[in-house]
Every structure is written in C-alpha cells, then in structure tokens.
Amino acid sequence: MSNINAFLFGFTNMFNADILKATSLKDRKTLINDFHKKSEELRKHSNEEYNADSKNHKTKVILF
After folding, report:
1. For the range 41-47, what are the long-range contacts, defined as Cβ-Cβ under 8 Å and sequence gap of 24 or more?
2. How many structural domains compose the chain?
3. Where in the sequence is the domain holding 21, given as residue range(s)?
4. pTM for the complete prediction?
5. For the chain, is the Cβ count within 10 Å smaller at the N or the C terminus?
6. pLDDT digits (tens, 9 = 90+) for 16-29
7. Distance (Å, whole) CA 43 – CA 48
8. Residue 37 placed within a domain
C-alpha cells in the first residue's frame, strides 16, 4: 500500500503543477475530471489487490 500512496502523492503534485498552468476554466475542469477518474481507477485496483492478498493470507484463530 505504501507504493500506491507514494505514487498518488507524486501524481497529485504533478496534477497541482498542471492545473496552475491551465488558463481557462474548461481546461481546469477537464484536468480535475481526469484526475478523479484516474485516482478512482487506482483506488479500485489497489482495493482489488488488497482483497485478493488478504484472502490468501487468512490466519486461523485458536481459542483456548
């Protein structure tokens, strides 16, 4: 998960730099919409990986 967080942090910094360069409101809205779509795809993908990984590594709890 830390690799994904680092990537998203870098991605956010690139997004912030791009939005400052965008001059028109339409360009800014497009950048924001694209950012939300890409971050949602990354979040969905990381959740799928996490769920698949957690299913493979279930631990058994023994109660005494």
Report:
1. 42/4, 42/7, 42/8, 42/11, 46/1, 46/4
2. 1
3. 2-56
4. 0.43
5. C
6. 666 667 677 777 78
7. 9
8. yes
